[in-house]
Structures are given as structure tokens and as C-alpha cells.
Design brief:
275 residues; elongated; alpha/beta; Glutaredoxin
């Protein structure tokens, strides 16, 4: 049954005066987040951004959004403002507006939203960001207790990889590889595969090859064998070692014909034959 208050909200829209309490200084917001243990909403904006102003008028003024946002520290960063604001925008790779980035109190990205989102969907985004932040903060707390915790390093590195925060991901995954001798085999293989992909990005092909071969040597084998071989094959192709790339792709097609990677391996082989 709809209450009288809910009906009023439905008919009248956002409550006059209801709004998110925005910080205006990024560093102060981070200090507040660290003190309160809350994650951070960073709203990147500029004067010329019409969709940014629409977020203010519609999404950020919605009562459900305002209420949910109380579980965060919220800060606005003008991408064309002070030198510090510009530095923050560059740090988080803001290239279009509006962009909303959710951070842990230690400034690690937990979720990112590029573009406008209305008040109907945004509370769900806030909830997803909150859940992600809690996981990230738990891993961070684990590393505060033990900087060499392989599970926390692997989990946080994987998360940062998925968030495309590649520099931080590389650091975490490298540390995980150095301390994960007792970790589950599946986790060890996954960490090496992700780190090999990053080494590929950096053209460190020899290191990528070593990581994948190390992962492939770990027993027992898992259902990631075709993925590892595909990364190895792509490493050889990017490295200019086409014969070894062809051989590796042929192994995937032959031994894992039902894997989704088999079709990609076939496509790679066709491309290589044309060269």
C-alpha cells in the first residue's frame, strides 16, 4: 500500500532543499573518508557540461539518491578548476563528462560510471558501488595487517585489472606472484595470466612468456588451460615469433575444440596465413 508520503514524493518529485552534501576539496574529502570509514563519490564536472548540471537537478536531488549517498563521502571535482582538481582528473583518466568515480578511503577505484544516469537507476549504482567498496576495503585492511597477504594482493590486483587501473593492478599482481606459493593453484594461475596480459601491454614479451609457462606448469590443470595458451600464442604473435604463435593456436584448436577460445585461435591462424 502506498503511503501518503510516498504518494506526495511521486506526485511532487524531489523534496525542495534535499541534496547531497558535497565536499569541494578532494584531499579534505579523502581525509573525511579515512576518518569515517566511508567510500567516496567523486563527481567530475565542468561548467560547460549540460549533462553534469542535469545530474545536479534531477539525479542528485532525488530523495532516494540523497538518502543512499549518506553512506559515502561526496566530493565534486571541476576538471577545469584548480591545479589540484586537474591533477585528480588526470589521475583517474577522466576524458569525458560527466564521469563519476567511486573510491575506497585509500583512493583506489571501486566502480566507475561514464555518462549520465537518471534517478531511477542511480540508487542501484550506489548500492553496487557500496558493495564493491566493502570488498575492496576488506582487502585493504588485510594488507594493512599483512602487506604480503597473497589472497588480498591477488583479489585487489584482479579487481584493479578489471577496473582498468593497470599500474596499480600490476604492482599488486607482481607482489602476489612473489608470495603465493601456498595459495590455491587456480588463483596462482589466474594471477600469472593477468600479469602476463599487462606485460604484453608493455611489450615485455619475455616476461609474459615466463609467466604463462609458469602458470601452465602448475598442477593440477584447470579449465583455464585454453585461456593461458591463447595468451601465450598472442604473446608470440605480438613478439614477432609467428611460427610459435601458429603452433600454440593449433594446439588450442586441436585439444580444446569446444572452448570459446578455439574460434578466436582459428581467426588468428587465418590472419597469420595472410601475412
Amino acid at each position: 500500500m502506498i503511503t501518503a508520503l510516498a504518494l506526495d514524493l511521486l506526485l511532487l518529485g524531489p523534496t525542495p532543499g534535499a541534496a547531497i552534501k558535497w565536499e569541494r576539496n578532494f584531499d579534505d574529502a579523502i581525509k573525511k573518508a579515512q576518518k569515517s570509514g566511508k567510500p567516496v563519490i567523486v563527481d567530475f564536472w565542468a561548467d560547460w557540461c549540460a549533462w553534469c548540471h542535469r545530474l545536479d537537478r534531477n539525479t542528485y536531488a532525488d530523495p532516494a539518491v540523497v538518502q543512499k549517498a549518506q553512506e559515502f563521502v561526496a566530493v565534486k571535482v571541476n576538471t577545469e578548476g584548480s591545479r589540484r582538481e586537474v591533477e585528480v582528473a588526470i589521475r583517474y583518466g577522466v576524458s569525458s563528462l560527466p564521469t563519476i568515480v567511486f573510491l575506497s578511503p585509500q583512493c583506489r577505484q571501486v566502480l566507475r560510471l561514464n555518462g549520465f544516469q537518471g534517478p531511477g537507476q542511480f540508487p542501484h549504482t550506489l548500492e553496487a558501488a557500496l558493495q564493491s567498496a566493502r570488498r575492496v576495503m576488506a582487502w585493504e585492511e588485510g594488507l594493512d595487517r599483512n602487506p604480503d597477504d597473497p589472497r588480498a594482493l591477488a583479489a585487489l590486483g584482479t579487481h584493479l585489472f578489471e577496473q582498468e587501473a593497470y599500474d596499480e593492478a600490476r604492482e599488486m599482481l607482481c607482489r602476489a606472484v612473489g608470495h603465493d606459493a601456498d595459495a590455491p593453484v587456480g588463483d596462482r594461475r589466474r594471477v600469472r595470466m593477468l600479469l602476463a596480459i599487462l606485460q604484453n601491454y608493455d611489450h615485455n614479451f619475455a616476461e609474459a612468456e615466463n609467466l604463462i609457462k609458469d602458470a601452465l606448469s602448475l598442477q593440477p590443470k584447470g579449465d583455464d588451460e585454453a585461456k593461458l595458451l591463447f595468451v601465450l600464442g598472442r604473446t608470440y604473435v605480438s613478439w614477432g615469433r609467428h611460427a610459435e604463435g601458429v603452433h600454440t593456436m593449433e594446439v588450442i584448436v586441436r585439444e580444446y575444440p569446444h572452448s570459446p577460445l578455439a574460434q578466436k585461435a582459428r581467426e588468428t591462424l587465418v590472419t597469420l596465413e595472410r601475412k
